[in-house]
Write a structure and sequence with these properties.
- It is built from 5 helices and no strands.
- With 178 residues, it is mainly alpha-helical.
- It is globular and about 50 Å long.
- The N and C termini lie far apart (49 Å).
- The N terminus is likely disordered.
Length: 178
Amino acid sequence: MSTAPGPYASGRDRDRDEEGRARNQRPRDGLGRPLPYGADGVARQPEGVVRAPEESVSEAQALLDAGRPFHAHEVFEDAWKSGPETERDLWKGLAQLAVGLTHAARGNTKGGARLLLRGAGAVEHWRGSGPERPERPYGIDLAEVIRWAGALAELLEREETAVDAGAHAPRLRGGAER
């Protein structure tokens, strides 16, 4: 049985991790789109990394600034899967925002706008669902992130054209980083 991935790999021939789960090792571009086998892609974002929340925010911001929202989504997904249950909706909403920006940059303006609004709604719901919820968890300016998502969704619906992901990246901590 061959272990090399190929364009027509069967279930038995697929790339597997140590636990036997399928992994697609096909190279990808900066927006996470698959490239042909053998093509030069960007480095994959490692999955399943447990980071301190502040580190997740900083790493995601760096990826967003670099025009790699697909990879920022992976960082947020790791935070939602490894963080406390009380924060899962926050991180999931941020991951949806990153995926929305990914779709917007790929030219899927309708899907991007929907995901941006869904992610903003999740973040807003998390923010308002408990009196103990800080206004700026881990320095994230939630009000600004929600405003950014709404403005970008409006732009996508009006212009119906792909955006530059780096140029339209949110400022997670307000104007403090770039």
